[in-house]
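Message: I would love a firmer grasp of how sequence relates to backbone shape in proteins. Thank you; the sequence and its tokens follow:
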Amino acid sequence: MTIEYATPYRRASRIPAEPGKPYVIEKGEGDRAHLFGDLITIYAGGEQTENTFNFFTVEGPKGDLVPAHLHPDTYEVFYVTQGAVRLFVEDLAGEQQAKVLTPGDFGFVPRNCPHAYRIERHHSQVVGVAAGPGHTFERFFESLGEPTERHGLPTEPVVPSPDRFATVPDHHDVRFLPDHRWRTR
């Protein structure tokens, strides 16, 4: 039996809106959103963890670089379960690196470090976890993208308008860096 809850973000969710309630979500049945060419599925967010961490997956086709951004208060991990993902990251001293992650590889991005990623193979999947002192950013995917009940990738890329990008730092721990340039490939 699957229980559905109403949340501030959706009419129906399998994730309870308040912390302290145990729950189970079957594969792929979390809160889903399309952003760019990807499907993001949230399994646990700030509401359930009192803003201590989140847990989500990103699935997508081979594609373009996700825009450079940073999280002022959040640490983020990338764990690849399928395919290949190139992680771009810059440390606080300005040192840049890019590394292709394949199944079983793990990438860690400290808070305030610019980063981006590009899916290098079709049908790739990344497990993401983010944690910080009182912040999580997972609802950014639904706010900037399009919530969906569908399984699978979007039929057309969901590319937000520039004015929607501008609203993100006010509501989520994500700051885009439109002028950032990667010196690594």
Remarks:
- The mean pLDDT is 89.
- The chain has three helices and twelve strands.
